[in-house]
Amino acid sequence: MKKIVNKSFMTNFLSLVIIAVGYVAPVYQELIKSIGYFALSGAITNWLAIYMLFEKVPLLYGSGVIPNRFEEFKISIKQLMMEQFFTPSNIEQFIETEEQQGSKMLNLEPLLKAVDYDRIYESLVTSIMASTFGGMLQMMGGAEALLPLKEPFTEKMKLTLADMVESDRFKMALKQGLDAHKIGSDIVDKIETVIDKRLNELTPQMVKEMVQNIIREHLGWLVVWGGIFGGLMGVLFIFT
What we know:
Layout: H1 2-24, H2 29-54, H3 65-68, H4 70-85, H5 88-105, H6 109-113, H7 117-130, H8 133-139, H9 150-165, H10 168-177, H11 180-200, H12 204-239
Helix pairs in contact: 1-2, 1-12, 2-12, 5-11
């Protein structure tokens, strides 16, 4: 809280300087002292209020509100993340967008190359030999008689699979398989589990530091403006 301390110190110091000037000034002593005292009062009050947000002060009820309420802060953090960012609709929209882009960019060629066509051919031959045609093929040389068909069969299978994955029917089936709603719900559940696990690791000190880091820059200005408005109140006090 170095920046807060610096702003608070400078505001309080300047207020004390104004008070001191009020006691030695040849003119407008009461006005200057009033400005100084009211400015000091406003600055100290705001500084104490800021301090009481993060630290417990003995005999001051309500101090240390952030450490005392850190469980509520954790719940608020989770609600913010789950209700504003990781909503099912947001995730579903993201998945659907990716699917639409994927339908244009998805390259299944590596998948087709990874297919074991030899194994498919061997399964076909095994099925034929186990059928009623097996006996006839045994008289013609057995499975070796089908070897000339292996290469044409493999090429035909590659073309057939390539045509199949490019068909509208296949793409529709692929899209239905990638159920955005179901995937989105699963992702939300996993994200919520991760968030719960991380939030359970938070301590009151960690929550306090987190909030300080978020609003640190602006807290110091509360002290400054407290001094300024306090000084203005001092002027009004003298002239009313």
